[in-house]
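Notes continue from the previous slide.

Worked example: a multi-chain complex. Inputs as given:
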Amino acid sequence: MVPHSEPILEGGDFAASPVGSVTSPSSATQNGTQPRDSSSPGENGPLLHQKRANSSTANGSNGLNPRSCITCRKRKVKCDKRHPCSNCSKAAIECVFPGPGRAPRRSRKPPDTELLARLRRLEGVVQSLGKGTDDGEEPLSPLISAPEGDKLAIKQEECAQKKSSGMNLGMIGAFQPSKETKNDEQTNGMVKEFGRLVVEEGRSRYVSNKFWTSLSEEVAEMRDILDDPTEDEDDYPSPGSGSSASANHLGFLFSFSSIALSLRNYHPPVEQIATYWSIFKSNVDPVLKLFHIPTMEHTVLTAAKDIDHISKSMEALMFSIYYAAVTTLSPNECITLLGIEKQASLRKYRFAVEQAFARAGFLSTQELIVLQALLLFLTCVRRTDDSRYVWTITGLLIRLAQALGIHRDGQRFNLSPFETELRRRLWWHICTLDVRASEDHGVEPTIGEASFDTNFPLNLNDADIHPAMKEAPKEHEGATELTFDLMRFSVSTAVRRLSYAPPGPTPCRIKNASLRLEDKEKMIEELHQHLEEKYLRHCDTATVPLHWVAATVARLIIAKMWLVVHHPFQRSDAGAGLPQETRDRLFQTCIEIIEFSRLLETEKTTLKWGWLFRTYVQWHALAFVLSQLCTRTLGPEVDRAWLVIDGVFDEWGGSVSSNLRGMMWKPLRKLMVKARSERAKAVQNRALFPLDGSIGPIMNFNSQPGPDMNGSAVELPMFTNALGQSYTQPNEIGGIERISDGFPSFEPMVPNTASPNGDSLPNAFDSGTFGHLPLDPPMMLEDNLNWAGWDNVVKDFDMSYI
DNA sequence: CGCTTCGGACACTCAACGCA
DNA sequence: GCGTTGAGTGTCCGAAGCGT
């Protein structure tokens, strides 16, 4: 008799071994382990092989699940199969069991037959093409128009002639793909290449290579001649139909394979779907304008009515929307609005959305909707997953987008204005995600400036466009629903240019050597002017929360870009030669960056969009402030710095885990310990030797000095920072003077103007301008005493992360 | 010392194949 | 149709690493 710790299983593939194969004691493993999941015949009796259908009831009569839960499976630990299982209970996480049945097997049959047949067919086409290439330059066939009523159309790019005839979409601003770039493209081959876009309802496929372009054309012609409808099927194998061999390989990307299983049980109750959608509209759409809400609303609500029969692509989109909605809510809101526990729901929907992508055949998808869903999912998952996951899958998303020709402007292919706009929105959100995800991992963005020509979306409201429109609408002058996104797109373009590093073994410290400091400063100034002129001067920051967010984000970004350009990490001397004045400015700018970053996350009226901003840890600013706090130990600016650092450090630190961001966090933690220790020493000294010359009281202090233990011996007037927190009056005890003409500063920083918890929004943008952005003073070599420890930080902090 | 991760051994399943 | 084979899939032991 085998010692038997396994529960008796009923049904399912692991329910019971065929009687003949019940493992005998002698078949125990070499290392003495027991055979697993083999039921004891003595206890099981004649439990025979049962079909999968029997196992569809997840629970057997003993209330146990036939399979291990997802968490145990992932952790490769024994699952007691109770609901919830002991491991999940102990970890206080939701216990989710996979659907019944095993994942479908991959075919053992080599897919040669189909491939060979296709090859043979194409060989004939190649031969016929060869006749036309004798002179080395095969003539390109004219635009192939689909016959009336034909669902398939092949659209050749409009030629350069049309492009140069003033057919500009009117949104070319300073941070659009520049004219210079476009000219380069015209001479470097983008226009010469004559890409071809094959479009069908909701699907598209892009071919740029001349050979394949011609080939697809020939094949299309042959199809017309042969009138062979089956060819359409070949071009568009039904996703998830199982006919495509690659579909069977998708499971490895997103967890284990459940491609063939239903995700029906993972949807929220049908009556709740409208609530999820309304949360999405309120919390996601304003800051991530990806969809055309009027049409998408109809699509989503229609799908909700018949959730059992939606397409696999739509399924992926629905789960992305659920996931996004839950991401934006606080744990309490999740319970009040949706009656669910946030973390558990995030895990559940993430599992479902990944499975849905696999089921939708996303690796070979030609549907825009799947890419939109993936973009939405990746943007939201950044909030909780800081591993390489987002960066890696973003690379995949870029490829998928290129395959659909999203990187080419729809107008060149005579797509409808509506479709063109949606494709532009998607592409620029992909670009932004690319920049963000790359920054997270200290690498250059994947998308190169010259690799696309998709224009910015027009500055419009959703109401201005509809699917049936024939003419492109006129862009608005003032703020629209797109304004916030357009600003982000401008910024991502600028960041891409700033972070461009020439290929080759260039040392990290001079990674941006291709651009001079003055060029970078000019670029930032141009961006600043562009944002101000084009968008911000139209914003009503006092009463429209989204406008306030836009203005605050703009200032934050400009300030951060200044910081990045001037950051000591960017200098070959690691900052040793920075003049004191520059350091002071940097210090102040950094504090304000952190303050406003925090404000964006916590301000009451804009809290619902905080999910987007919470993914942005201000590494540069934090590192610099902490390094400065190792040498600046007293004074009101130091108090102010500690106030904000104490506020964010644990929270930001808590959101990073042991992976990559965790690695970046390590040196910051070390720096924090050192800064605290220096601060404690200084406070102790001041307590012993106060400024009035008396012998001070021996103060008790803990090892974590902060604003509550500044040990000030002088009564100081209190000021309020951007977060509405109080700190002592600058200048009173030799603090740093406010720099009005220095780095971009958040004005006004005067007592009690900012009231983040009050009715009006904090006055982050009253001046309506970022102020004068001066060039850095000439660099001078100064004493580097203040930089004690900085070298260590530089060593600790992998330079590539900056 | 408890917890997590994960390589890898093992059990089980079933498509493919040979054979009668 | 049936038996055999071997590769795919699922489970989970136990070593190693990590944090407290």
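Summary box: Strands of chain A lie at 153-156, 196-200, 203-207, 718-720, 726-728. Residues 13-14, 17-18, 21, 23, 27, 29-31, 33, 35-38, 75-77, 91, 102, 105, 107-109 of chain A lie near DNA strand B (CB under 10 Å from a C1').
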